[in-house]
């Protein structure tokens, strides 16, 4: 069975990729499970560039199939910030309760459509022959007026989904997988891999 390394240490992401790629003939491992350690500087200007930087770095060490993702929140009212700096916004050690409150405060005067935002996920693959594939997907929504929900992480408690009338931290993990930026991007990448490996 072909090994695929997903360049992450995030257990939630690993669970998601294993669910979505379950019917693929792939042995999916995290970097830790594959025994790979690397200190990668993500200095790209876009989600796609950062995903490729990670995938290329791990591919250089392993030579197999490597996937890496980069994702974040774009708030239109804040000129698409925090964007690629989502995890580092206001400092990496700052709690998401503080970050989420800061975003809500920044949108104090914004109403309706002005509160539009999206989660973005870019996934890059580097294949054994060195060829590369990149996909991008989004989940559209708005910034809520308050922090709500326990199911998600990061910015989920302020990301309001009008069609559900809830934040992405208030819907079930199964519902979220169906509509999330990462779920969509993983399904797109699955099609790319099927084509590349056929």
Task: Note down, in words, how this protein is organized.
Strands 1, 2, 3, 4, 5, 6, 7 and 8 form an eight-stranded mixed β-sheet that branches. The two termini are 14 Å apart. Strand 3 and strand 4 form a beta hairpin. The model has no long low-confidence stretch (mean pLDDT 95). It is globular and about 50 Å long. Helix 1 (11-20) packs across helix 5. It is 31% helix and 26% strand. It has 198 residues and is α+β, with helices and mostly antiparallel strands. The chain has one domain: Maf protein (Alpha-Beta Complex). The chain is built from five helices and eight strands.
Question: Which helices and strands, and how do they pair?
Answer:
Blueprint: E1 2-6, H1 11-20, E2 26-30, H2 47-62, E3 65-75, E4 81-82, H3 96-106, E5 116-126, E6 132-143, E7 159-161, E8 166-167, H4 173-179, H5 181-197
Parallel strand pairs: 1-2, 1-3
Antiparallel strand pairs: 3-4, 3-5, 5-6, 6-7, 7-8
The total of beta strands comes to 8
The chain-level mean pLDDT equals: 95
The parts where pLDDT drops under 50 for at least 5 residues are none
SS content category: alpha+beta
| CATH hierarchy, class | Alpha Beta
Query: Sheet with the most strands?
Result: 8 strands, mixed
Broad shape: globular
Q: Any idea of the CATH topology?
A: Maf protein
End-to-end separation in angstroms reads: 14 Å
Counted up, domains total 1
Gyration radius, rounded = 17 Å
The appropriate CATH architecture is Alpha-Beta Complex
> How much beta, percentage-wise?
25-35%
The helix tally amounts to 5
List the secondary-structure elements in sequence, H or E: EHEHEEHEEEEHH
Helix content: 25-40%
């Amino acid at each position: 069975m072909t090994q695929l390394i997903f360049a992450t240490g995030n257990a939630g992401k690993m669970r998601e990729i294993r669910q979505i790629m379950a019917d693929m003939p792939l042995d999916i491992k995290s970097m830790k499970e594959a025994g790979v350690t690397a200190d990668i500087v993500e200095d790209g200007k876009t989600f796609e560039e950062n995903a490729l930087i990670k995938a290329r770095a791990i591919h250089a060490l392993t030579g197999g199939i490597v996937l890496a993702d980069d994702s974040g929140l774009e708030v239109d009212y804040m000129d698409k910030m925090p964007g690629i700096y989502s995890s580092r916004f206001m400092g990496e050690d700052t709690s998401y309760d503080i970050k989420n409150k800061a975003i809500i405060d920044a949108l104090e005067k914004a109403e309706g459509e002005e509160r539009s935002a999206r989660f973005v996920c870019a996934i890059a693959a580097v294949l054994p022959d060195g060829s590369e594939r990149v996909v991008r997907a989004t989940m559209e929504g708005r910034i809520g007026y308050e922090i709500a929900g326990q199911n998600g992480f990061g910015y989920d408690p302020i990301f309001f989904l009008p069609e559900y009338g809830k934040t992405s931290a208030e819907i079930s993990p199964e519902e979220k997988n169906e509509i999330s930026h990462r779920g969509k991007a993983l399904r797109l990448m699955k099609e790319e891999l099927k084509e590349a490996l056929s």
